[in-house]
Amino acid sequence: MSERPVHGGRLQAAARAHNIPVEDWLDLSTGINPEGWPVPPVPAEVWRRLPEDNDGLVDIIRTQFGAPDYAGCVPVPGTQAAIEALPFLRPPCRVGIPEPGYSEHGHWWRQAGHEVVPLALELARSDPEWASSLDVLVWVQPNNPTGLALSPDQLLEWYDRLAGRGGWLVVDEAFADGLDELSLARATGSENPGLVVLRSLGKFFGLAGLRAGAVLTDATIAAQLQKTIGPWALSGPARYLMALALEDNAWQSRATVTLIEESSRLAALLDQFGLAPSGGTLLYQYVPHPDAGRIAEAFARNGILIRSFQQPPALRFGLPGDETQWQRLRNILSRINCN
Ligand SMILES: Cc1ncc(COP(=O)(O)O)c(C=O)c1O
After folding, report:
1. Which one of 177, 200, 205 would you pick to mutate in the ligand 1 pocket, going by the greatest count of ligand atoms within 8 A of its CB?
2. 204 φ, ψ to 5°?
3. Is 200 a pocket residue for ligand 1 (Cβ < 6 Å)?
4. 108: Cβ below 6 Å to ligand 1?
5. pLDDT tens digits along 166-176
6. Region 11-37+250-335: CATH code
7. Where in the chain is the domain with CATH 3.40.640.10?
8. pLDDT per residue as tens digits for the range 177-212
């Protein structure tokens, strides 16, 4: 059993390690929208009844993510549930996983007995042949933590190579909301068997605690996945809120505009203090730095939690939620030696 991957958002552990009460922390260690979708009350009926598959949610998911109405669609309790289940739907094979990247993917393909081939992102871009040696390729679009995004055409070219041999392309689009032009959801369905797109309500919508996401794919994989995760995997309240959030196009448009502004503000602020990001998404900025561990530690001593990575050494900053938090970040940046 390989070790469980470590993630951001571990505020209780940081509070204990640094002896700073949880409520005094500024948590910038996740890529969760600090001004998430405003959650309305859930009707009592929704809490009482068992969730039903034919409540219209799958049609809403397909429409909102731009998938064809014939695409296989499985609502899941967070994309994590799909990340854990998908590797067990194939016999052991060779699976390419981007590194750096979201570490749960490699962990679960390994757990299911597959050979995991770490892919340097530069190689993936420069050598069109490499996909030919794989059976499955997992791509995080845009990448967490680096923010790298490739053109959907590039991904479809890789998909063709994999699909020709019965392979899969799994595209994790957890951070693609607000960046519709990057999504491969529109290509899912039976005409592209083995193309699997994961969507999450945890990031852009700021509903990580709800545990809601969706898988868009061909009918065969969708049926297998549905069977694996079983009935009622997604709670009634989660289905109800997911449908409302996905249909709230006005909120989504406003959130996209705000996040575009806030993410460039964050990039500019970090740059000003010697931490120029090499990439990012609407929800975080990625800063390669040889001293990442020391800098993250200095932030933590001041009650600000950020992510640091070792391979390669880098920092990831999420968005502050209000002006007080922006000021707090600016103050610390001006006090810490980031060179
Ligand atoms: C790239 C990526 N994919 C998937 C997930 C899982 O998200 P969720 O299970 O909340 O949908 C995360 C969570 O951090 C992530 O960063």
Report:
1. 200
2. -60, -45
3. yes
4. no
5. 999 999 999 99
6. 3.90.1150.10
7. 44-247
8. 999 999 999 999 999 999 999 999 999 999 999 999
